[in-house]
User: Fold Hydroxyethylthiazole kinase from Terrimonas ginsenosidimutans.
Amino acid sequence: MEKILWQHIQTVKKTSPLVHNITNYVVMNNTANALLAAGASPIMSHAQEEVGDMVGICQALVINIGTLDPYWVRSMILAVNKANELSKPWVLDPVGAGATDYRNRTLSDLLALRPTVIRGNASEIMALAKANVSHTKGVDSTAESNEAIDAAISLNKEYGSVVCVSGAIDIVVDNDQTLYLRNGSPLMTKVTGLGCSATSIIGAFIGVVSNKSEAVAAAMSLLAISGELGSKQSSGPGTLQVELLDKLHNITETEFMNTIRISRN
Amino acid sequence: MEKILWQHIQTVKKTSPLVHNITNYVVMNNTANALLAAGASPIMSHAQEEVGDMVGICQALVINIGTLDPYWVRSMILAVNKANELSKPWVLDPVGAGATDYRNRTLSDLLALRPTVIRGNASEIMALAKANVSHTKGVDSTAESNEAIDAAISLNKEYGSVVCVSGAIDIVVDNDQTLYLRNGSPLMTKVTGLGCSATSIIGAFIGVVSNKSEAVAAAMSLLAISGELGSKQSSGPGTLQVELLDKLHNITETEFMNTIRISRN
Amino acid sequence: MEKILWQHIQTVKKTSPLVHNITNYVVMNNTANALLAAGASPIMSHAQEEVGDMVGICQALVINIGTLDPYWVRSMILAVNKANELSKPWVLDPVGAGATDYRNRTLSDLLALRPTVIRGNASEIMALAKANVSHTKGVDSTAESNEAIDAAISLNKEYGSVVCVSGAIDIVVDNDQTLYLRNGSPLMTKVTGLGCSATSIIGAFIGVVSNKSEAVAAAMSLLAISGELGSKQSSGPGTLQVELLDKLHNITETEFMNTIRISRN
Assistant:
């Protein structure tokens, strides 16, 4: 398994998939940098005049509702419909699910279009599955990842999406298989947008890897291990952001294989 | 006084207030990182469908007009009205006050809603108070902080807002008290958005500290001291941005107490 | 020539030109930081209520279509018309030219307003000149700079713009003169928005240097040399972004003169 994930990481670096992001304002810059460091090519575009065309030239689509508004939501729907029409994979990041009715209604519309992958923290995944009605505390995770597994399984069954619950342990749910990835660093929660970076990197991997749960596991392990190794050279969240990008770019097979802690159930 | 400010810094770290930001595109990422590093939780949201709900779940609201346009201004007004209705504190950052009539008109509307705190550089505070009709040179400070004290006092009297004039010396005006904070580094003027970060950190502090002028002084001293200590390990504005975030996260009581230079008049 | 370019760099630092940017969401933060580090003052503003006023107080205007949409395009046209009316220089960054019909139509409208300078990668410049109908691969360069010289010459002849084709070799075309700048580092392609930063720095230089091709060559050499020197102290794209900003701020005449490799034809 670990070896296959490393091969997928190399596939992304070699093929440099073009990833179309309709994402939030806060993270556009570090998301683009994370995609470049991982070897992919980012596109950010939201105009209704061109989102369909952009989907047409990209390998995958990333939808992140972090700073949604009506114009951007219409663009997201247009882009997703085009991706579905062209059978291109897309990943949904339900930022702040449960925080407002507007987010919930928007997410309901997007879920109905059956994302290839959904990635969120435990609060978001539970809100998405209505398995839990507690309020999301902003965009941070307030529930432990493992409490959200039932929610992930129900989303997977209902929409066919591979579901990734990220947190101290990252969990990937698809059909009857659940993967547990135990990498990362607590300091990563002090850098804004690493969850959003994870989602975009997933976009890169599902664009070129046919096995979607492997693609998600490869993307999440690349980011978590880069953060874990980067945090050892960091004195705080500022340096971590820098070191993480370096490691996404420079990580060696030996580093990856010696650090990854993954199991399945 | 210094000891009380440190306690407020600890209060923010312990309670992790949720801060709703309607701010400008340029600084969203580093503002979010500054809030996380200081121990708060950032939310960025501007859709009219949800800004009221977001205010409802947050401890404080930050309004920054840096890249204003009519949609965003309406969202700001909606959010401020909700904050006032719920008696939640809010802080106004009048970026570029005086540069255009549109900014001045917008700021006039926002001032009428009586911000809990106003933070700007000397040019902006003077433009806001109409104490000075010279043109703002962009978003940098062209007038010395101390020249703006009269403007700050007049704003404080008219709107009841605590007014912070940031610059080489940060000044906090409230009622008959004026605080002078002599920390920071000239290199901080070469990093974009540190003023905006200051405003957002003020948002975090007024969300959980009842004495608003102490809250502002604590926020400003945390940022200025983090910048001052960070600049000693920096070879330019790139490293300063990184070191400042690390220090916001890691600063110790000894570092803080040994560095702070605050006086009142 | 090299000495003159260094003098122009000093002119920017001494005069600190105010540069109005209507640019894309992805790069606003690092563009603003690059302008500050180079000694200029950034303004970012897009509201139709004020873009004309902003042009009025700035020395130059930067138009970058990276995340264009109809509202922003109208703002761009308004701002450019004002710049032309006031005889202020402006630079066009045709991000993603050729990728979609919408971008091509928008660029056609902007070209008709005769930019003072155009800066793009080889793919973009060729798409702009319709010299090549291959699809742009996102915002990265897929064609070698020197293949785009014919396209640059044709744009220069048709619109009178100084044209800069950036890439492994940066090329500056104006009238019968072509400059070749051989600085930089391959790692710069892994940091998002350095092309956009180049364009904004060009904005600063054309704002205060009357010879526009010298202004472009000075801006491009400053950025490329800062990246080249910065990359020597970098272990990846994360550190490069930081080191590059430091070097833009700190570069000495000796470093500049010992590193620059420029020739004309």
The longest strand of chain C covers residues 18-22. Residues 2-264 of chain C form a domain with the UDP-N-acetylmuramoyl-L-alanine:D-glutamate ligase fold (CATH 3.40.1190.20). Chain C touches chain B through 32 residues (CB under 8 Å). The CA atoms of residues 65 and 94 of chain C lie 6 Å apart.
